[in-house]
Amino acid sequence: MNFSEKTLERMKVLTELHGAPGFEDLVRNYLREEFEALDVDYINDGLGGIFAVKKSKNENAPNVLVAGHMDEVGFMVTEITDNGFLKFTPLGGWSEDVLLSQRMSVRTNDNKELTGVIGSVPVHFRRGESKDTGTKIKDMLLDIGADSKEEALEMGVNIGDSIVPNVKFEKLTEDKFLAKAWDNRYGCLIALEVLEALKDVELDCNLYIGANVQEEVGLRGAKASANLIKPDVAFVVDCSPANDMLGKKDDLGKLGEGTLLRIKDGTMILGKPMRDYLLKTAEDHNVKYQYYLSPGGTDAGSIHVSNDGVPSAVVGICSRYIHTSHSIINKNDYLEAKKLLTELIKGIDEEKVQELRG
């Protein structure tokens, strides 16, 4: 599969959109516009997940759900101090050591985005035996340039506003791209582009393809979409942490080594029939892949135990430094994942569903 300028532009738009958990509307609006441009029907669940619908001509076709998630790890404003700083609470998993001095963007009720920086005490003024004791998130302050609570309010900030990193998409090399929110605007992108690739293909399944909300705070949106769609098979598309910085041969999750065959994580074990289907499809279509394990989880953790149980798999890529302000992917991993997902969907029919159910 070729990499197009259109894909590059979609990457830029999606990763730069502001979309913390519970505040995914800008990402959802973008996906809706893209679905409408492709002239496809779509549905929403009650929490805000959005899915394009491509029906099969087969009367008893099984339902296939392909789900990314729109949200990125972020924060919520919890207090405005008298001298104009903002206190905040995390939305999703953050480590304190990646936050100090980082540029952030606060989205106000009237949809303005205000730049701020998470304040850090200069090393010259730190006291005690250790100057690297670490600052807890509860003690951090976001500086948006206001000198008072009144000024911050006049700027449009309110308690409950969302905060995400302020980072622009950048092409580092021909293959590597830097951005915030690869976890999981990758999933939004691949869902959109696989839908586009399959638009004129007759399928033996009803395809529901799009993205959930609030994955980063407990796989919440996946529960709603699975209850709405009632899938027979699910493919979750998510971005996982790379572990290749030391260059060891046994590292799991290497940029440039292909899509991830995620055999186990903290929320799901890949079933043998599904594992065999992924492997055969990858081998038959010359897809580059790598095995992957993770202590974390994905929306598949909720979907595979929904209704009466749903055979599920994750079609993912890895990214360096996810759950920080800056992350890096390799475009070739994306292309391999796109090829695999496209062929997996094309191979689903009633007989395959029964096989996957064991």
Automatic annotation (TrEMBL):
The residues that cross the membrane are: none
Active site residues of this protein = 215 (proton acceptor)
**Which UniProt key words apply to this protein?**
Aminopeptidase, Hydrolase, Metal-binding, Protease
Metal-binding among the record's keywords? Answer: yes
The cofactor note reads:
Binds 2 divalent metal cations per subunit.
Q: What is its EC number?
A: 3.4.11.7
Q: Where does Zn(2+) 2 bind?
A: 183, 216, 323
Binding residues for Zn(2+) 1: 69, 183, 238
Query: What sort of enzyme, by top EC class, is this?
Result: hydrolase
Protein's GO biological process = proteolysis
Q: Which Pfam families match?
A: Peptidase_M42
Recorded hits in InterPro entries, A to Z, give: Peptidase_M42, Peptidase_M42_aminopept, Peptidase_M42_dom2
Cofactors that this protein relies on: a divalent metal cation
A GO molecular function held by the record: glutamyl aminopeptidase activity
PANTHER family in the cross-refs: AMINOPEPTIDASE, AMINOPEPTIDASE YPDE-RELATED
Write out the similarity annotation: Belongs to the peptidase M42 family.
- In Swiss-Prot or TrEMBL terms, this protein is called Glutamyl aminopeptidase
Q: Which organism is it from?
A: Nosocomiicoccus ampullae
